[in-house]
Model the fold of this input.
Amino acid sequence: MSIPALVEPAAELTVDEVRRYSRHLIIPDVGMVGQKRLKNAKVLVIGAGGLGSPALMYLAAAGVGTIGIVEFDEVDESNLQRQIIHGQSDVGRPKAISAQESVQEINPLVNVVVHGERLDNDNVYAIFEGYDLIVDGTDNFATRYMVNDAAYFLGIPYVWGSIYRFDGQASVYAAGLRNSEDPVMREAAAEAPCYRCLYPEPPPPGMVPSCAEGGVLGVLCASIGSIQVNEAIKMLTGMGDPLVGKLMIYDALEMEYRKLKVRRDPNCALCGENATVTELIDYDSFCGAVSEEAADAAAGSTISVHQLKQWIDDRDDFVLIDVREQVEWDINRIPGATLIPKGDFLNGSALEKIPSVDSGKQVVLHCKSGVRSAEVLAILKGAGYSDAVHVGGGVVAWVNQVDPSQPSY
Done:
């Protein structure tokens, strides 16, 4: 789907800019006009993590005049395997500041605007307004739906990307341009889908592991992040055929790209003919950190890591079950735990590996952070293990509060 250029050209390029961007200028499809559009462009990047790192670096190198960074987190050592905008000396520093310094080192001609706060319903409109395009590098469903909805209401297109292990996806969602005052833009975007057209509902809580739980191949971030910048440049300058109405799927193991058509859903809750989402909603509730069953099971059946340490020291009438995967178990573990992955509880085979309900042994569950163990706790409660409990905060809390000698991840 062809979309007109989002940005008008700047008045001129300086001698320094001509020298810096000469390899763009000699491409007929870019030329002086295209580079002037990039200079005049304002692009907001959400997240300075795996996808945000290459996106920020290539946007800066391309000469995008104003780059906004939304990021509230600090650099952790586990980030460095894929978040290449940060270095070892940045560990413990705000990611937004680290990213800003890297961008300005790449291209001092770029204006960097830092939004060092968590994106939420209260600030999303104020942060988004004034930008021509958004590059979404978020890693959770609640924020993705909020970005989609806010961008639609404000009439701002955005480039979306997603990564997990060896798989990546990318698309451009321009449904918001149907709200444009420009009739040419409205017509061009008339059938453009939004994120909800492709994913009307979030997956059930706990069904899709995060990168922190399932991992991601570091270089995959560069593959998808560079696709996002490629699409951003096309949208800003009006070049080529951007991924509007198309989903790019990348399999790094097979080195295979596939492109699927994504049609506008006339029944979409946001951009459909009879929209039911007409304002920002409670996205945490919509997506759910844990299922309602898991939350009910965990209520009154959650112990802290300090309680667990005391139980390990003083009791022998319980079994500690780690419901993570083998690869996580190989990194760190709580002493005395037995590994039985969550999948074994889902298929029922785990019940043969744990003490029976009337054995007198209490079952204590844990995972990385407490989400998966809460889901398993709901299964055990349903199977009659009424006194089963899980450990709030999981291994992360254990390493941070009880045994810092073990590595985190």
